[in-house]
Amino acid sequence: MSTEYGNIPEETIDAVLTQHDIVETVGRHVHLTKQGKYMKGLCPFHSEKTPSFTVTPDRQIFYCYGCGMGGNAIKFRMEIEGLSFPEAVKIMAEESHIPFQNTSGKPESPQDRETGRLLQAYEWSEKFYHFLLKNTEHGLPALEYLRGRGINDKLIEQFRIGFAPDRWDTLVQFLDKRSFDLAEMEKGGLISARQSGDGYVDRFRSRIIFPIANRSGKTIAFAGRILGEGQPKYLNSPESRLFNKSRVLYNFDQARSAIRKQRQAVLFEGYGDVIAAWEAGVQNGVATMGTSLTEQHAAMIKTTADEVLVCYDGDNAGQNAALKSIPILEQAGLQVKVAMLPPGLDPDDYIRSNGGERFVRQIVEDAASTTKFRLSNLKRGYKLAEESGRLDYAKAALPIIAALHSPTEREVYLRDLSSEVDISFDSLKQDSNLIRQEQSRPAPGQEDPGPAYSGPQQGGRGGGQGQYGGQGRKRSDYNNKSDYGNKGGYGKKSGFGGGNYANAEEDFFPQQRRSRPDRNLLPGHQAAERRLLFLMLQDRQAADYVAARLGEEFNTPEYAAIAAYLYAFYAQDREPDSSRFISSLQDEKLEKAVSSIVMIEGPREWNEQVLDDCIREVRKFPRLRGIESKREEMIRAEKDGDFLLAAQIASEIIALERQ
């Protein structure tokens, strides 16, 4: 039975996975050593010194015990190269000479055709500009300029830099001879219409060309720096079908792997800074290309990083831009640090003057906290040599320090402030506490009513129709973790309602006590659900048995979703295959969960008693949770003095416990 993932036929995905062995695919990027039936190495997706990245040849999957990344060969290519699923499949298919079709039987839309032509035009234009820089007399002055700025031939190749000659129709003729629709090219930002309305001219003339790529590495725009004098000094492609400057970061495609590994991005203002920092060893740098940082930029960084180091120019404009970027990044859930560059220097200037090693050591590694940066920036506006200036600075600095949640941090900054303004620490601390009280006091009529009631919290059940019911929950229903394992475990060792997690998975896989002594502790019901899925992934008959008796009634939403997709997978008359099943999910959260489950060290043999024990444990959990809820009701009734109600609830608890 044939299905399609997106618009890609299942047969194509199967062929790609067959032709691309997981060990060979991963081995191009990770040094693997054999350990028993596994291959191990250092994870390319996060920094580590002890190998926790594991490849399993017989199951054709990889999994990192450190960061949780896992999947098959397609997933690895997606993550390591920053590709979408269709892009990864297409590239891998072409590498193996597998016919690739990305169609659902629907005709390609005019918009899709136009997008495809523009991408091709940008790709050819990029190569054309690069050729002109490296191989023609037109490009010699630009080449000498770049080398004088420390951008060597290796960097020119790395960033695919080019040059647009000082002529009106170089690119116009190039595109016209290749039968591109010039009106379409103008709409896409490659060329400009003449002011007279008669014909087209090159948009970039006498400029060094820096290609701007999307996250997949495809060129979608250009940035041009004028060679010599003239205005504007920097010119970007206009926004188009491909290019939205509020959603694109320069070099994100190349930096993505380093950002993911370090969990940190360095944010610059321009592409020159990114290139200079790359040569200095900072390969997790991206830039906003002179435009203001947006919420979309911050969200884009958040997909691969936990922390951002803002490294803007040292002048007033750069520092003010850094101040504005901090709340945007913090609201996206990112930790923020700020590089303290000397006044008047940008990162590119600093590197050329002081060298890359000093830049890394003194600017990147010594980046300041946002509080230190705010105070340092604030201090510039006051004359600390005068008593009135010191007093005014202290008054302005105190609200910044008082807003800190940590008492330790507040004390450190208050002591520093005390020495700077020559005011006693105790006086500053007293003023800080007064400010905190004022900040926490609600405005009149705005008293805090307490947390709003949001209804009962549900662990969620699937709603399958029949053994392989196709009407289970949607993938989006499983995005939030609403399982009940957060407040207390109810497994064999957990102790009812005690809140102590037992390594219940060891009850089902005893050998893990020796092989995985540091395993995260799991509640009993989660361990049982993981074992059920482990056996279901190995044996279709086990899945049939669980489908008939439990369906999708898993307490953990992720596992309920996996079960639903697994039932559907087997309903297509598929044989057990973890790698192919992972491809059918196309959901990163579920892919990681399946990869983790497949890597469990446990017996693959099963019988009905084994499955029944697990099913019983899964079904027991909501009942135990109900008992716990009743106990809380009984305690509240006793506190309120309603002993009759408390006795009634106690009887209900006894009845539930007998069940």
Describe this structure in words.
The strands form five sheets. This protein has a five-stranded antiparallel sheet, sandwiched between helices. A five-stranded mixed sheet has the order 15-14-16-17-18. The chain has five domains: 92 residues, Zinc finger, CHC2-typedomain (DNA Primase, Chain A, Alpha-Beta Complex); 127 residues, DNA primase DNAg catalytic core, N-terminal domain (Alpha-Beta Complex); 126 residues, Dna Topoisomerase Vi A Subunit, Chain: A, domain 2 (3-Layer(aba) Sandwich); 60 residues, no CATH class; 151 residues, DNAb Helicase, Chain A. Helices cover 49% and strands 10% of the residues. About 10% of the residues have low confidence. Helix 13 links the parallel strand 16 and strand 17. The chain is α+β, with helices and mostly antiparallel strands and 659 residues long. The longest helix has 32 residues. One of its GO terms (biological process) is DNA replication, synthesis of primer.
